Amino acid sequence: xxxxxxxxxxxxxxxxxxxxxxxxxxxxxxxxxxxxxxxxxxxxxxxxxxxxxxxxxxxxxxxxxxxxxxxxxxxxxxxxxxxxxxxxxxxxxxxxxxxxxxxxxxxxxxxxxxxxxxxxxxxxxxxxxxxxxxxxxxxxxxxxxxxxxxxxxxxxxxxxxxxxxxxxxxxxxxxxxxxxxxxxxxxxxxxxxxxxxxxxxxxxxxxxxxxxxxxxxxxxxxxxxxxxxxxxxxxxxxxxxxxxxxxxxxxxxxxxxxxxxxxxxxxxxxxxxxxxxxxxxxxxxxxxxxxxxxxxxxxxxxxxxxxxxxxxxxxxxxxxxxxxxxxxxxxxxxxxxxxxxxxxxxxxxxxxxxxxxxxxxxxxxxxxxxxxxxxxxxxxxxxxxxxxxxxxx
Length: 393
Description:
By secondary structure, this protein is α/β, with parallel strands linked by helices. It has helices at 36-49, 67-74, 86-96, 116-124, 145-163, 182-185, 194-205, 227-240, 243-266, 278-308, 314-322, 325-352, 361-387; strands at residues 23-29, 54-60, 77-80, 101-104, 129-133, 175-178, 209-213, 270-271, 274-275. It has two domains: 15-240, Spore Coat Polysaccharide Biosynthesis Protein SpsA, Chain A; 243-385, no CATH class. It has a seven-stranded mixed β-sheet with strand order 3-2-1-4-6-5-7, with helices on both faces. The two termini are 43 Å apart. 41% of the residues are buried.
């Protein structure tokens, strides 16, 4: 079957004869033979009740129970996606959708597709991404307590903190978006983290994200979700796409602590009732070197995101306009020269002592730290400049 809902438009023509569809309902499916027919039928009814020209697309993600055939018989257009994964299924379904508005829906009957007109109304009103919010409508037995009280709140809260969003349920499986939003989102992930990726990319580009409360019912069939594996994939995705918090913040903290430890040792300050000496100085030097390197990695990752992934960061852009390659080279070179100068002083002391025993470990550690950090800053500046060499259209 064509998968186009047989809905009469306002002029009386069959929607199957019309190519400019208004709504596409995309449903990923993996072994949902017990629920997919009812899910497709309800979706078609929702499209008809809303008087939309629409279609239902079921993405068969390698089912072995005949789910794809059942969906086709129920009136869906079936797209085969052999690569397993929630994200892979949705990427195939979104690419196949022809509707102006796309509604995403799980195949397990956990969501009431009769809510479809409410989502479309938000898109018609100017919204670009509309998320369902399950948290106030969870029916008894619909969501495990670990997901309800730990996983979802923590991951959603972290997403809001890292990316400045204010969503309440970042992982709701019922959502809608404008099809012309897809090029901006440039979705890529193949797993459950696609739900987070969609929100993050929409927020970074500045699209209008809206939320609607929805009921969440106990699922039909067996869950494909792995709490720990999928939770880790979401967390990993959030951190990887926030290099400032993953690299720059902890790196700056390490470098600051290291610098304070070195200063405490060099000024012979008493701390916690004792004087700190050589071993603390070595530890402080290590913290400074590692911290600066982590910050450098974060700046490079951030630059890559801005230059190549379409990320937007006003702070980074302001710094980019204020600090040029030459500033970084000057800073790095100055640190190297200072370290070499201290090394020269150390050499002079050694010569003055007749090339004998030399107990100037503190000076040697400081000199080595300055040279190492200076080299890091010098070559990181070049790398940032290289990342900024964007090819012009």
